[in-house]
Amino acid sequence: MSKLPVTLPDPAALTEESKPFWEGLAAGQLRLQRCDDCAEVIWYPRGLCPHCGSVALAWFTASGQGTVYSFTVVRRTGGPFGAAVPYMVGYVELAEGPRVLTNIVDCDPGQVGIGQPVQCVFDYDEGGRALLRFRPVT
Question: What pLDDT is recorded for position 1?
């Protein structure tokens, strides 16, 4: 578990399209959608393929592997994240293709670089719900 707060969306705000994603995180799995017609992997969860328009989408368990595409170090902020500075926000390019906006955790910000391999980790709240974050592969 990282030092960052686990701030999750209100369950009432979750959509039917995103439900398998959130259920997967709670189970310790990164679940993504793949289009059955054009084979593109899709991020973020939705009801139709943004590449070809198909509604033939299927869920699969992704590897959780990726590389740092871009990142920044947050050194000043307020609210619940204020006590966690410095922390990193970045885009991780998943091995399956899509890029996700996330936190990079469990490391010194000075040791992170573009192209660095990372692995997904799950930060749980008291109710067993989880957020997707990534840490460098050691």
Answer: 60
